[in-house]
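Collaborator request log, item 7. Partner lab (contact: R.S.) asked for a structural prediction of Molybdopterin-dependent oxidoreductase to inform their binding assays.
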Amino acid sequence: MGGRKRPGLGKQLAELHRWNAWLVVVLAVSGLLLSWGAARGWLGEGRVWLKQLHIYIGLITAVILVLYGPLMKRHLKQIRTRPRQKGNLAVVLVLLVGWLLSGIVLWQFRHLPPRWSNGALAVHDLLTWVGLPYIAYHSITRLRWARKPEKRAIRTTEEPERAAPGGEPRREPAYSAAEPQAWMSRKQFIQWSVGLAITVAVVPPFFRWAGRTLGDFGPSEAGGMTKETDPNRMLPPPEPLPDSANVIGGGAQGRFRVYTVTPLPKFDSASWSFTIDGLVDNPIKWNWGDFLQLKRVVQVSDFHCVTGWSVYHNTWEGVPLSQLLSAAGVRPGARFVKFYSGDGEYTDALSLEQAQMEDVLVAVLHDGKPIHRDYGGPVRLIVPKMYAYKSVKWLERIELIEEPHYGYWEVRGYDNDAWV
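Returned to partner:
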């Protein structure tokens, strides 16, 4: 019986390699765009679609790994005498499997313990820092022009012809003593140059990333949101209550990642104000000094970002949102609470029932210290039971409204109810 001839192992492996290479390129580009803070704003709703594309391509990569499984034994037998190829195969498999497993955890993080997400995100990032430079080096140094054999030195003397095994005469190459071969081949020069360029480009930011990420699994030294200098000029600084000063939760465990959709704003106590208006009986506008006189409370809660990372045991100090709403007097027609960021762009909203939850806080201190500008200070909203895009940074206005409001990320595809 006749039949279609099955492709050889070499052809099958080449086809899988080609598909895998293109998939990794798409994953790399989409992943870098998703993690690039500056791209969050201009991608807009496209960021949600890009994230879905990243997930689907990752799943297709898993299919490639499954297809490779039956060929692996034959492939290993084929390269058993080639240690460099075996090493490269091992590295690539570790990268792909690690990316896939950590990516699945990040994809399904809503159904898993939050600490799993922190670990998965760290692993995913680490493999990216290691894997992309490795893949770039491997790809560039294996391009056809990079593997072109070294040109032979100029032949200057005629060598006698020798008989080849088949009887045909052959010439042995002869080189001029005046022109010795180069100490480094063209291929070696390219390999060293590419390796050095990648090292210079990657190592410094990698160590900065490692320094930040190592804190994700232990207590922060001086409050997760504290930096030595703060561009905001808020005088006087808020005096912490005893529980806040003593950091009753023991200090935040983890590090906050700075995400913003606009340039980071700056604030000054001389011009800063906080307003409650809309459907209220008593619209109120506080300056900085008056706002600091409001009665504050201290609470300990976890902080979860929808991108997969969490910071645990944060000690927040601030004014309960329910207290502010009570002071303004909510009219019967008000059904939603809209929040305005001081960046002039970002907004979000909660239902009136959600806004009156006892742990929703308008915070001014974190772990006993003023909230740094980069993390939403001088005042930010904290909604512990929801993902952090509801916790509006640089909060400066609250409006009571009748109709639902869809915030910056909700109109770009995020859930309006952001329960953790």
